[in-house]
Every structure is written in structure tokens, then in C-alpha cells.
Design a protein that fits this description.
2 copies of one chain form a homodimer. The first copy, chain A, has 8 helices and 7 strands, in the order αβαβαβαββααβαβα. Chain A is an alpha/beta fold. In chain A, strands 3-2-4-1-5-6-7 form a 7-stranded parallel beta sheet, sandwiched between helices. In chain A, helix 3 (71-77) links the parallel strand 2 (60-66) and strand 3 (83-87). In chain A, helix 1 (6-27) packs parallel to helix 4. The longest helix of chain A has 22 residues, at 6-27. The first copy, chain A, starts with 5 loop residues before the first helix and ends with a helix. At the A-B interface, helix 5 of A face helix 5 of B.
Chain lengths: 221, 221
């Protein structure tokens, strides 16, 4: 009997759809960023603030991945950006066919940048290509500076790492060595961009938004 | 061709080992708790503090699950408790055969309570029985009060929920409605015990430790 490697087969099927999504987005010159993090690192708050700060400069749409609820899509819609909610009904990551479906609903031609907010999970989503232009790892300083060493895959594969909730560092409310986290992540990924931010206070958001504006500019060239 | 449900087959194989672990632990009257949470919610810090506070009262051993590194087992060993590190090499959850192996290494007969610290992941570990007496969900208040609604499985299946890092609530460093999180979790699980704690300051640890002492007492009856 032939041995079937089921893991590889599922990935192959996913990658076929991911490739179609790449073609779809590249033909239209759209930047698409896949945000990955633990639950509660602040992805939705970062997105809402980014959309607001870039209003009039970059047109942003969002694909929201959650196991259940549409809490996150509702929060994005409050910024007036278009948002499509995908409920994975228990699955621990978004897959490329779900993104293909969402891209049919989003008004892609009117957008410059599409964010995918993946299911909160620092492990599984990093193994599934969605057709994105790049991955963005988000790490809250409340989670501890050992996370790049302990969960290396996503930090190795990302274009940028957002170190969120840096307002908690002042006053020593959490123990987090920014330089250690940065060094561990850059050991895995030499060209990783690192943006320390607080989506709550707005600190550091300007550098992140400038990087997005430049990335959009590179995409439409 | 017969359709094979691979997900079910993997779970069946896992459950066979989980059942063996239950027999092994029940025969020896050992309490075994499987701690599940997002990365960085404070599982290891909680365990280290719990071990220290219960020294002389409850003999605790730990099975540490991580994708990579033995940072966590080292932190546990500093408390002088025995700890076995399992590296899953990329896998997003511990599985029952790994626990069977670890139980052969731990000095089980000398212990009252075995903690399993699962891989940091609020989704996948909840689907894999390990042979534990019960699951403990850990949620840091830095992660947001919407997590029981967004990631229901683990809250529905747990004996207790630890709401950690409550020191961040004072001074309003994070927005987290304890009553909302509690209500959402109890909607999924009427008998869920809830312990608001700070493993950093020690607040609330006494109630949690009392509950553990009682649970050990019930197990050896």
C-alpha cells in the first residue's frame, strides 16, 4: 500500500489556492499582508489605528479570521474600512481557499492594501501560505521576550515584527527586554524590520505607517 | 474507495494512549492537570510560584511542552521540582504518547500532583486528551476579555480558569472587564472555577493553592 503523507497533501491543495491568490493580487498590484500572533497581542487594535492614521493616504481593506464571532470585523467596520469576516468554526488557522472567497467579496480594485488578520495562534498559521505579499508577526511585550526563541517559525518567515503594548514597559509593569527579543528574532531573520509600537497610545505608529506607505509604493511600481 | 477521516484516526490513536495514561495515574492516585493558554499568558511563572507556595504541602512535578528550547523546564528546576521537557519540534500541541514517555522519566510515585504545561496555543491543545484529571485554562488580562467568546473550546472543557496578571488592572494599564470574561466563560461551562491571580505579585495565589490542596485530597481519597 502506498503511504500517503496527509500533511503534505493538505498543504499542496492549500498552496494551489495560495498561488491563484498571488496571481490575482499581483495582476492588480495590491499589497497583501498576513498578520500573525498569539490571541490578544493587539492585532485588531493595531489595524483599526493604522486604518485611521492612513486615512486619505492608503485605502485599506481587511479579511478577519476568527474561530467564532464577528467581534473583530465589527471593530474594523467602525473605522469605515471594508471588512470580511471568516469564521473557521474551530480550525486554528486561515487557509488559502478562504482568502480566495473573501477576495471576491472585498472591493479589491478600490483598495491599495489588504490586511489579513489570521486566527490568534503563534504556531499553525505560519505553515499555511495564503497568497500574501508578506507576513507580519505581532508580539505584545506582555507575552515575554522569550517568544522568538520559543516559537521561531513565524519570526523566521515575517517581513516585519511589531512589538506592541510598549506603553506597559514604562513603569516596569511587565518584564520584557526589547533588545533580547530583537536579537533572537534577527538571528532567525536578518532582514526583519522591527517596529516597537503602542496601538493604545499611538507611540511608534508613525514609523510603521511610513513603512506601509513605502511598501504600497513599491507594489504599484 | 473508502473515505478515511484522518483527523478522527489521529485522535483515536491519541485517545488510546490518553486512556493508558488515565489508568496509570488513577491507579497511583495522582492528580494531573493540563495547563493550556496562549503564548506568554504566564503558565511557567504561575507554576514556579505555585510550587514554591505549596512546598512542604504538595509534591509537584512538571511536564513541559514547548516547540523548541528548554527555557521553561530550567525555570521549573530552579524551584527544585522535577521537570521533564518535551520539544514538539514544530507541532502545535502535546499528544498523549509524549506524556506516556514523560511519565516514565518523572518520579511519579514521589509526587502528589503532576502539571502538564502545554505548548502555548489557545486552540489546538484543547482537542487532544493527554490522560489528565482536568484542564486549566490560563488567560492573561493583557489578552483582552473577549477571548472566552472567541476561543470557546478550552473554556468549555476546563475545570478552572486562571485570570493572570491582574496587577495590570490597577492603574488601568490594560482594558479588561473581569465580569465579562467570567460571564462568557461560565456561559460555556457552568461549573468553571475562576481564580483572578497575579503570579508576579502573589495576589490571589492563596485561593488557587487552596483549591489545589483540596483537589489533591479528593484524588487520594
Amino acid at each position: 500500500m502506498e503511504k500517503i503523507d496527509v500533511g503534505k497533501k493538505i498543504l499542496r491543495e492549500n498552496d494551489k489556492h495560495a498561488f491563484e491568490n498571488i496571481i490575482f493580487l499581483t495582476e492588480r498590484k495590491k499589497l497583501c499582508l498576513n498578520m500573525i500572533s498569539s490571541p490578544g497581542s493587539g492585532k485588531t487594535t493595531i489595524l483599526a489605528r493604522t486604518i485611521t492614521e492612513l486615512k486619505g493616504k492608503v485605502k485599506i481593506g481587511v479579511i478577519e479570521g476568527d474561530i467564532q464571532t464577528d467581534i473583530d470585523a465589527e471593530r474594523i467596520r467602525e473605522t469605515e474600512a471594508p471588512a470580511v469576516q471568516i469564521n473557521t468554526e474551530g480550525a486554528c488557522h486561515l487557509s488559502a481557499p478562504q482568502i480566495s472567497d473573501a477576495l471576491k467579496i472585498l472591493p479589491v480594485d478600490e483598495l491599495d492594501l489588504i490586511f489579513i488578520e489570521n486566527v490568534g495562534n503563534l504556531v499553525c498559521p505560519s505553515a499555511f501560505a495564503l497568497g500574501e505579499s508578506g507576513k507580519i508577526a505581532v508580539l505584545s511585550v506582555a507575552e515575554g521576550d522569550d517568544k522568538p526563541a520559543k516559537y521561531p517559525a513565524i519570526f523566521a518567515k515575517s517581513k516585519a515584527m511589531l512589538l506592541n503594548k510598549i506603553d506597559l514597559l514604562e513603569g516596569g509593569h511587565v518584564d520584557f527586554d526589547v533588545e533580547r527579543a530583537k536579537a533572537d528574532a534577527r538571528r532567525l531573520n536578518k532582514t526583519l524590520e522591527v517596529f516597537p509600537i503602542s496601538a493604545r497610545t499611538g507611540e511608534g505608529m508613525a514609523a510603521w505607517c511610513d513603512w506601509l506607505v513605502n511598501s504600497v509604493r513599491e507594489t504599484v511600481k
